Amino acid sequence: IFSSTDGTHGVRIPDLGVSTKAFSAGEEQVLEFTATNAGTFNYFCNVPCGSGHREMRGQLVIEE
């Protein structure tokens, strides 16, 4: 479950082929999927959201 405290954002995990729709401050977006591979996957904000947008990224670790 992703949520925003400011602005409109979204999340994309390209190597898993999944992403959320855009969500605004105070809203939640559920990203539900079945992982078929273990590994470390990069994710990032997929909605241009202003200053700092390029730094809005992280990693999801899926273990077997």
**Largest sheet, if any?**
4 strands, antiparallel
Helical stretch count?
Answer: 0
Envelope shape: globular
What is the H/E string? EEEEEE
- Helix content range: under 10%
Going across the biggest sheet, name each strand in turn: 3-2-5-6
The overall pLDDT average reads 93
Strand portion: 25-35%
Number of strands: 6
Terminus-to-terminus distance = 21 Å
* Radius of gyration, in angstroms, nearest whole number: 12 Å
Poorly predicted runs of 5 or more residues? none
Structural class: mainly beta
Give an overview of the whole structure.
A hairpin with a 4-residue loop joins strand 2 and strand 3 (about 20). The radius of gyration is 12 Å and the shape is globular. Helix content is about 0%, strand content about 35%. The protein has about 60 residues and is mainly beta. The two termini are about 20 Å apart. It has a four-stranded antiparallel beta sheet with strand order 3-2-5-6, with no helix packed on it. A two-stranded antiparallel ribbon has the order 1-4. The chain has strands at about 1-5, 10-15, 20, 30, 40-45, 55-60.
